[in-house]
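Dear Dr. H.,

I hope your travels went smoothly. While you were away I took the liberty of generating a structure for the chain from your last submission, since the lab meeting agenda had it listed for discussion. I wanted you to have the full record in hand beforehand rather than looking at slides cold. The sequence, exactly as received, is reproduced here:
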Amino acid sequence: MQKNIPLTLLLILFFQVFAWAQKPALLQSGPMVGYSEMREVALWVQTTQPAKVKFVYWDKENPGQKYQTAEAQTEREKAFAITLMADQVQPGKKYAYEVHINNKKVDRPYPLEFQSQALWQWRNDPPNFKFATGSCFYVNETPYDRPGKPYGSEYGIMTTIFGQKPDFMLWLGDNTYLREPDWNTRTGIFHRYTHTRSLPELQPLLGSVHHYATWDDHDYGPNNADRSFWNKNVSLEAFKLFWTSPNYVLGENNGVTSTFFWNDVQFFLLDDRWYKTPNENFTKATGDRVMMGEAQLTWLIDALISSYAPFKFVVIGSQVLNPVENEESYSYYKQEKEKLVSAITEAKIPGVIFLDGDRHFTSLTKMERPGTYPLYDVTISPLTAGTYNPKETNPLLVPNTVVVAHNFALMEVTGPRTDRVLTIRVMDAEGKERWTQQIKATELK
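The corresponding predicted structure, in token form, is as follows:
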């Protein structure tokens, strides 16, 4: 546990597991703060059975004026999970909120707060902000886990992240781990998402930190799953029920590709499963092998060209720039990878940074490009799943950036509009800093 966490916060966290054991009978998990925009914020909660749910919220500077979301009924067919909109917010405000189930306020022993994004354009420099990010979040459930040593551990990393007070958490995939009893049925997939989301140590982070997500193989289907996965539509349904997204840019039934802004920075959340060709014969396969697919790749390139963001985070489950053909690297998809990298170079797109997980170790890859700026690939993994000591030799690896331990990254964007700076801090489960890297937007042009 971090030594600099205030005593009051330590007391809250000390009692959180006990309090969760005493949670109201109708509350399964949450509430969770979802995406944030200037005029609406998504709020999520899951009940244990059908119930009427609403949220009451207020500007913390004007607590006398209270607002309510619509009231709606949770349904068994939708895992009793529901997202409602706080659609009476104003830009740049901080709000407190309550969740009401069957017209009764549900008390939580930690803060329930959210924020709307600021209207800074044509007025001020964009505000500074920070976000946490990570991947590979395994929560043990002994009856359904494989025999032997439990694969998940150090759930207290969620408490450590919460103590850093990020504006939002960006989940990079493998946000839950579907097991053999899960992926063949809707019941199994919904159970796994529910079980992971209900972890006691996760609840305070859900309650006051905004959340965004993409997926990778384990929260999509079996290990290394591809476009042939027979239950992909059910996985998509579960993802949409348990995460909030302001958009699905390729359509409602074409994977989880989305985008969002936080202040002046744009995030492109990609789907590396829905369109992915099968993994068989990795080294022999040639031709039309794709990870993203034509429609998604075309959208991404167009969107990168159109974006004025000083940092453009391309978020995907699998590593992109590591040239070693190992596990599920993008290097197995040479033609598609080359098309993406060439487009970034030829269109002179500034500010691109790749952000991914999957590998069960953390590292920073740097690809030099003659005549232009280098591309960075930040891999952050794992949060709680087992670690892996990489055996490959990545020639583009930035020295001293491999971390083989449970960890997350805290990324902070600061500075005036014309001179934004990204600071990356990789921290372990106890909050110890493992490495830091600073990148200026002016260096990515």
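Two observations you may find useful: Residues 129-443 form a domain with the Purple Acid Phosphatase; chain A, domain 2 fold (CATH 3.60.21.70). The first helix runs from residue 7 to 14.

With kind regards,
E. W.
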